[in-house]
Amino acid sequence: METTQKDLNVTTIKDVLRQYLLEKGFRNTPERYTILEEIYNLDHHFNVDDLYLIMMQKKYHVSKATIYNTIEIFLDAGLIRKHQFGEKTLSSSSYEKSYFDKQHDHLVIYKEGSDKEIEEIIEFCDPRIQGIKESIEQAFGVKIDTHSLYFYGQKKS
Prior knowledge:
Layout: H1 5-24, H2 30-41, H3 48-57, H4 64-77, E1 80-83, E2 94-97, E3 105-110, E4 118-124, H5 127-140, E5 150-153
Parallel strand pairs: 3-5
Antiparallel strand pairs: 1-2, 3-4
């Protein structure tokens, strides 16, 4: 049986999590690995409610509290990143897998006439932003590790 890139990626992120848990002295639970694998199977942004529903549909017995706590661990371990897109939802934070992804920015498009209901999120990478980042590093004598840039708007009629 051929090992796919996806299988290699899952093995890598599980190794990263295992090492992180060991270094921090956290328990090494199967639930954490299951949640991590579900996140890395997604191809879009998600919130805790989305993830909880996925876990319930697959008959995993995990509480929302466990998911929230696990999300915090994954954030600190650099396995996911958090976004505040300004949407009006019960859980206002969105997340995405980040370990293998290069830096990118977001265009958040709201539904016309809505109060911050998201129609679409477009991820983009513009090389001019890299130039701006380098200019800031040079001007202030810093090394920027990461950045986030969000544009918000509605489609033109």
